[in-house]
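Exercise 7 asks you to align residues with tokens for two separate proteins.
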Amino acid sequence: MRIIHSCAIRLAVASLLFLVCAAVCAQTFPSKVLRLIVPSTPGSGGDVIVRILTPGLSELLRQQVIVDNRAGAAQNIGAELVAKAPADGYTLLNVSSTLTANANLYRNLPYDLLRDFSPVTQLALSPHLVVVHPSLPVKTMGELIRLAKTKPGAINYSSGGFGGATYLPGELFNSMAGVNLLHIPYKGGGPAMIAVLSGEVQVYFAPVVTALPYLKEKRLRAIAVTSAQRFPQLPELPTVAETGLKGYEFSNWFGLMVPAKTPADSIAVMQRAVVAVLKRPEVMKRLNDLGCVPVGNTPEEFAKFVKTEIAGLAELFKRAGIEPTAAPTN
């Protein structure tokens, strides 16, 4: 009986020590530097947003958060790197609408967005502006639709690349309006903007932050905003849906994910810190000035959002007759 009693005591003590250790380990995350992978170039939308957030995150987490740009292969290089990283919470991925498009556009991706990642939170939404070169004789979306129908394939629009955030609203417009704006892809948003400024193309579905300076200089004309609601900085500008395409809505979005099987406690710590930083008045102002709407939802809400985005884009590409192709390698 004494032996059994002694064993029971030792087991109870061991169990208690295990629970204490687990609690301490959960409380000490993070205990080293975190790396936030941005799968696009410095200065891109996602890069700018996370660099606004990382000082506050480093402060709250009491560990440095380092931004690491790994651009290439339509953002797939950075995504693959994080998918194969240790699932310990110390490697994060800045995700955007481009990766949900990739899930439908490419048949041999080296990762699966739903299987290989765990969502942390959605960071922000960013609407686009439909801008045209001043030489194009349209001032409303209705006029653009009528002109495009009378000249199928004669009006073109630029984008920063096939499947990207400036490509998707253009294809959504083509599909819903029943028109054929000709897509002209460029190697990045900068060249795509230059193309419409020079008149090489007539239309661009431009990120708000890049378009605003050229609107003030009257080098471009904005005819609509792609979001469901009007943009606060341009309240007189109607949405695409208001101009006749009921149900049209597009906003680029940004969020954070970690490798699948990352401990839920670590994800919770990171999510709480991100939401706290997003709620800071100075951060909200900087994001609003960039044309972004802060979000900061739960991992479950973000997971549902991503699934819905993938399904919606699958329908869009099906209607547009876009078939999956081999994934780019550089």
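Second protein for Exercise 7:
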Amino acid sequence: MTSAYRWAILAVAMAAFIQTHLHRMAFAPLIPTFVDDLGLTYAATGTIQTAYFWTYTAAQIPIGILADRWGSRRVMLASMAVLVAGALAFAASGSYLESIGARMLVGLGAAAVWVPSMRLVMEWFPPHERGRVTGLLSAGGGAGGTLGLILVPWLATVWGWRWAYGASAVPALASLVLLALLLPAGRGGGAPGGAGPGSLRRVLATRAVWPLNLTVLLSYGGWFGFLTFLPAFLVTSLDVSRAQAGLLTSLITAGTIVSWPVAGFLSDRLGRRKPVFLVSQAASALACLVFAVGLPHLGVGGAAAAAVATGLLVGGMITPFTMIVELFPPALAGTAAGVTNAASFVGGMIVPIVLGRIVDLTGGFTAAYLLAGALQGLALLSALFVRETGAGRYTAPR
């Protein structure tokens, strides 16, 4: 567990996690193109975006069980290969249904990165490092989301959206090679007491899991809805270009590259996860309200400042994913992480479609963002009932 090679393990996991967020966010700055040039509604584009989450969500629990049984390496290699295929399929899609199917394939490929990586964190890192390591791993997601929001719309202006999105398969292919070369084959699965037929039952029977799951469902539903339509909101409210809107939105994800590791470090130092999460959850709810009411009056500079502040303040939203694995012994880490990650993406799967429908009905984004803020507020209320696990302590299930 104390081997210096653990940092190489973290680096390759981060490289893979970068790809999941790059593809999660790469479609968002293309939404104005699909609305204006292809004649789709916002509800339809929200459906394309959330098609990623349909397969991603459905796969989380099976992926957790497989990671506990077979090990992280095999699961992550297979997933990255599927992600590459999905990216190429989306770039080549010729109809609305084909684009949805391709996004579902991308989501399936992205599904098996976070959960196996969290199992690797539990196996290779000592308890007092797990908060900051989870934050560093999450920073890879922030980097990927930032790249998706900046590079894809910029390349789309030069090459067109198909070539721009197709190019995103190249770093995913490079990550596949890194996983094959650097991730050890002999660790990460098949341990005594690992996942068996009763592992999922044991996790679901733990009462402390359910307030945590409800919290992340509401929290991440509102968060993904917020990010999905922000580029389009910026285009319509501030009359900026699509590339500029992607750049402004990327200031949020760029901020999380800093705030996620910092939040993990603080939770390790405090010996408590929950206070860090509560502060960030409150900041996330406030950000939705600020953009809902204030964006048309902020101007480009004000919107940029609000985006930076949001990214720097929401880092603690990652701490529930450290808390869930601390509720169980390491042999159940994958299964437990899969359950809670699935809950978070149930929200991500539903909320953007609902928000897109509200935009279609109202002709603006204000009501949609007020709903996103309300969901974040409910998540904050639910978080008050989440059990504190403490930094690095295994808390016996109840």
